User: What shape does this take?
Amino acid sequence: MNGTETRVQKRLRAAGVTRPGPESVTWKVNREILVVAGWGRAILLQLAHPLVAAGVDAHSGFRHGTRARMGRLRSTVGAMAALSFGDEEEAIAAAARINAIHDRVCGRIQAAAGVFAAGTTYSAHDPELLLWVHATLLDSMLLTYQRLVAPLGEAERDRYCAEAAVMEPLLDIPAGLLPRSTAELEAYARDVLGDGTIAVTARSRALARAILFPPPWRLLWPVFRPVQLLTIGLLPPAVRQAYGFDWSPRDERALARWTAALRWVHRRMPAAAKHWRASRKRPVQRGVPLAEVASALER
Assistant: This one.
């Protein structure tokens, strides 16, 4: 175990948090391959934050061709699988890799954007930026699961948020910063979307186009079209408008048709085809009962 992994391990154990196990809402939601369709929405919401967009533009491979984007997608899926379904050693290693990447992501924005003046510094370790990224993922994963897989009750949605707070010690986020319920998540999102923090820049738009409309997308239309519709259609209207995306009643009907079709297909697929392989393996360390998880997260 290297130094970064040792620090992650110490934080995790000092926090007294038990990672969610196979009986958790985290496994129920994150095991669904189809939920990845919501990542596009989360990414565009993240890029609507000028500091996040600056960091992605300067330090990511999003605009470096299809191969680079596919490599990033594979690494992201691998990290998600390790954090969600891996044993403690795998989760710590994945978190350490993320922290090491974050070490390199820092800089200054060149032009004013929203409430941020030219020259404002950014860092991927900034707790406020980590909170925004985390919140967009939580919101988008829950929204996509309910659209494409099945409804979730309020208690399940709250549990999902509470379980996800295990990311605080893994990513060195101050304890108590991440939302523990959907009410907290929604209140935070309203505040950020309404206080001027979010400002879609030309850089944000270029990155969004590169993600949603890469050169070969028409050759893979059956894959890209539903993702494009879900990403654009489920954005908050003000953010969608700021990106310059048109959204017509025809688009709304197309989204409804694709949603119904994907749900129909999903219901008829075997578990081996619709769940991530990592979620089907026998866990090395099973999670404790959910009541104990919630108790640990609330300490």
DSSP finds 17 helices and two strands in the chain.
